[in-house]
């Protein structure tokens, strides 16, 4: 109720105020167009305390530090995808300032969203380079914030794998949008360019061919399944959230492949509506999510549409029960 009340403050017209039941969809379309990005980049200088020292505010010139400038640009690109394509104003849909810290920790092999901001390590230099080097990774971390402020998917088991998959989907879309790539042209890789040349692999994950992103002596083989036949039951990784995400990731890829054109158009709109439309439970299973994408496809394109067909076919291919 409090969130709904706060949302009202931001709705300009009486007409828009009448339909605040689903503030991120219907009201979002009537609300003023999204404002500009508000970015703040901090430098942890190898420590693990947040946010660190402020190095670049919105509108300020380049710092000359690659990680800081990549984070600044990546957040801008991500903000632009949400604003231009989905009419969303930042992480919370209401212009939330975007904060990121770079040079977090020593030889730190990860990036994450901590519930309030994005954090990027430099990598150890042996396996990983700096995590800001990949735009899909920046988009992935910011999407964790979008999920937190929309469906709020729990970070474990199937809901957690869906949470991870949302981040991969929108991370991939940011990269494709910036590069102007169609679904057919895109690599569908998450974290391309993060590995050092020492590693036998191309990226952290492949949405097109889950399980094939790397096969390395040190890292082992990419553990992602590409259908429910390979679903991994494990207590590690919050119940395999970074593993089983391969299944819904491939479903999204298959929709985009079937429809052609730009993946941020119909496929992106269907997934975005599913995530933010207000009816997806935080504990959604793959089946609940899949049915919600079908409902969104019907709502946006109709039940006789090629989009609806493509979504149904994709979930059948990855063997998620509908
Ligand atoms: N890079 C990982 C992610 O965003 C970090 C984590 O597992 N929390 O999913
Ligand atoms: Zn993630």
UniProtKB/TrEMBL annotation:
It is found in: Secreted. GO terms for molecular function: metal ion binding; metalloendopeptidase activity. Gene3D superfamilies: 3.10.170.10, Neutral Protease Domain 2. SUPFAM superfamilies: Metalloproteases ('zincins'), catalytic domain (SSF55486). Its main location: secreted. It is an enzyme of class 3 (hydrolase). Its EC number is 3.4.24.-. The active site is at residues 141, 242. GO terms for cellular component: extracellular region. The keyword Secreted applies. It comes from the Bacteria. Keywords: Hydrolase, Metal-binding, Metalloprotease, Protease, Secreted, Zinc. One of its GO terms (biological process) is proteolysis. InterPro entries: Metalloprotease_M4 (IPR052759), Peptidase_M4 (IPR023612), Peptidase_M4/M1_CTD_sf (IPR027268), Peptidase_M4_C_domain (IPR001570), Peptidase_M4_domain (IPR013856). Its cofactor is Zn(2+). Residues 151-320 form the Peptidase M4 C-terminal domain. Transmembrane segments: none annotated. Residues 42-148 form the Peptidase M4 domain. Extracellular zinc metalloprotease. Belongs to the peptidase M4 family. This is Neutral metalloproteinase. It comes from Pseudarthrobacter equi. The lineage of its organism: Bacteria, Bacillati, Actinomycetota, Actinomycetes, Micrococcales.
């Amino acid at each position: 109720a409090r969130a709904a009340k706060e949302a009202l403050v931001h709705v300009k017209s009486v007409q828009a105020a009448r339909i605040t039941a689903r503030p991120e969809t219907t009201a979002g379309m009537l609300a003023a167009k999204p404002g500009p990005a508000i970015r703040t980049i901090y430098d942890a200088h190898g420590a693990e305390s947040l946010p660190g020292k402020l190095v670049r505010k919105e509108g300020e010139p380049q710092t000359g530090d690659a990680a800081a400038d990549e984070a600044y640009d990546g957040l801008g690109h991500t903000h632009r995808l949400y604003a231009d394509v989905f009419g969303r104003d930042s992480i919370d849909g209401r212009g939330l300032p975007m904060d990121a810290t770079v040079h977090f920790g020593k030889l730190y092999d990860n990036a994450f969203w901590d519930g309030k901001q994005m954090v990027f390590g430099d990598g150890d230099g042996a396996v990983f380079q700096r995590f800001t080097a990949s735009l899909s990774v920046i988009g992935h971390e910011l999407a964790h914030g979008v999920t937190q402020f929309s469906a709020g998917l729990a970070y474990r088991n199937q809901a957690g794998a869906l949470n991870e998959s949302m981040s991969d989907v929108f991370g991939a879309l940011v990269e494709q949008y910036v590069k102007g790539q169609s679904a057919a042209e895109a690599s569908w890789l998450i974290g391309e360019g993060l590995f050092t040349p020492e590693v036998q692999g191309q990226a952290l994950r492949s949405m097109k061919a889950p399980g094939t992103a790397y096969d390395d002596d040190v890292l082992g083989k990419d553990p992602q399944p590409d259908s429910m036949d390979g679903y991994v039951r494990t207590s590690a990784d919050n119940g395999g959230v970074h593993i089983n995400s391969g299944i819904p990731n491939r479903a999204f890829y298959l929709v985009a492949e079937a429809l052609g054109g730009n993946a941020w158009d119909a496929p992106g709109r269907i997934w975005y509506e599913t995530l933010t439309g207000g009816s997806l439970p935080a504990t959604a299973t793959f089946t609940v999510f899949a049915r919600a994408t079908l409902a969104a496809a019907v709502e946006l394109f109709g039940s006789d549409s090629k989009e609806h067909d493509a979504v149904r076919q994709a979930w059948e291919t990855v063997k998620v029960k509908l």
